[in-house]
Amino acid sequence: MIKVHCLTTGWVQIKQHHQLARFFKRPIRVLDVLTDTKWSPHLPIGCWLIEHPEGLIMVDTGESSRANDKGYQPWWHPFMQFCERRGVKAEEEVGALLKARGFDPLAIKMVVMTHMHGDHAGGIPNFPNSEFILSETEYQGIQAKDAVFNGYLTMHYPDFFYQNIRTVNYKDGAFENFEQSTALTADGKIRLVPTPGHTLGHQVVIVDMEDYYILIGGDASYSETYLLNGDIDGVCIDGKKHQESTAKMREFCRRKPTITQFAHDFNSEKRLNEKIFTKVK
Ligand SMILES: [Zn+2]
Fold first, then answer.
1. pLDDT per residue over 217-247, tens digit each?
2. Which domain CATH number covers 256?
3. How far is the CA of 1 from the centre of ligand 1 (A)?
4. Which long-range contacts (CB under 8 A, 24 or more apart) does 157-165 make?
């Protein structure tokens, strides 16, 4: 029996043109975010726990409760200093949320990272016993010279993280309409598929619940509405790939009832708990 929980590790505020891009070309899009004076509402920062017979699996780790401490965000980075606000109380960090629900963070077998942006990787220190599953491309991203500039806060990764990384490159064949996938569990019920665009190495997790799927989408879209509209976010690395990935996810939802989950979507938890499927025209 598989069960999925949606956890919220505090909130983040981003610029409105970050949440929803007005332009397609990246330099113009990013400039539009940097010069935007309007903030989004407080958006949730989601992550997920999957109870599976082969062990407990996390998808993403949410934000750190230290994210607003002086010096946590790089002082020289205009985007992190001026274009994002975060609010994560100690009791809202992922380790505390798991304990409050009766789960031991030290017992988590695997942590799948949809991607390595700060508000998804901030809770990594809570999981010293876990194996971290990253796409090969995202792993290269955190090792690149410009990693911090690109939103990967590598200075906060604990040593054990690097020792416990497993990379995947989707060699387990096609899955539904995705040409490539990796089976994460021996029973094949949990699969990873590449969804580049927001970052080049972004991946989503698909949980097979027998008569429906749960698609855990990280930042592959910022909300179900944006997914349905094919909208892109203001900071995505590759707008074309982002749109191709959301088109694939929409086609996936057409094939079989699917509950979609996104990290910054107000309604993720409600859709999961009330079993509300994503309706694609
Ligand atoms: Zn992100």
1. 999 999 999 999 999 999 999 999 999 999 9
2. 3.60.15.10
3. 30
4. 157/121, 157/124, 158/124, 158/125, 158/128, 160/128, 161/124, 161/132, 164/130, 164/131, 164/132, 165/131, 165/132, 165/134, 165/139
